[in-house]
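tool_call: predict_structure(chain=1)
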Amino acid sequence: MTQTVKLIAFPGAPNLPIFVAQEKGWFTKHGIDLAITMTPSSGYQAEALAKGEFDMAGTAFDNVVAYTEGQGAVALPQTPDFFAFIGATQIELSIIAQPEYKSVADLAGKNLALDAPGTGFAFVFYHMLEKGGVKPGTYERAAVGATPSRWEAVKTGTHPATMTIEPFTSIAAAQGFNVLAKSTDTIKAYQGGCFASRRSWAAQNPDAIKGFIKAYLDGLAWTLDPANREEASQILLRNMADIKPGVVGSVMNSLLSPTSGLTPKGEMLIEGIRTVLDLRSRYGKPGTALSDPHKYIDLTYYNEAIKG
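tool_result:
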């Protein structure tokens, strides 16, 4: 007997372990009938998760922090009981720009595309811009939505630059757009993606959350096995139409990288979490200092799942 679990995630190559576990039947094996929906934006995702329209979210860890601290992209009726229960990626974020922009400094004074100015990976974007000589307040910010929408905005000329994850970074580079900076050049450790839920839902559905963790870890371990790289590439191509055979190699390189890719065993990286909190403290709500990594995570279900 299986339980339906509704997951809302961002489009991107880091979903590969989920695609693998679905194709291999590992969610069913662990009692889960997974229904996955791709979100158009972080705000939509947070609202839908808070309302109970979805049970889990594949999201940026910073989104969990943002809504816990009342700093989310959208105002929710009450502070949600979001928490992260397993890690997904360190993630490599890249600034991609139209061909005429040759350096980060060229973006000063421009209108740049973001998902939402105050959540997700926006603070990494601000950090990379500042490292490249473009200080806060010297550029405009436009809330465009998730990576596919931002990439489309740059591709069509609506905005000169944005920040992307794989596969969109490799897609942009293959089409002649410039990759001006990568987060891994200046950030040592970063908790990028995670899976999150509501504490209330998890408490009422412990077997479902542990079943999800087991299936995801099966998919993750298989994906990270070098012997499976070719088949994993084919699974990614089948599940993401935007990826073409010519770029799948570079996408896989990023996914499998120990500094920018999928996190082995789904670990939550405490130093990476501290980086998230530091960036939000610097670029988020003025005067807010965030320092406790454990406020936003609960690894009880993870620890019980791996024991099982």
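agent: Strands lie at 3-9, 32-38, 56-60, 82-89, 94-97, 111-114, 140-143, 161-164, 178-182, 193-198. Proceeding to next step.
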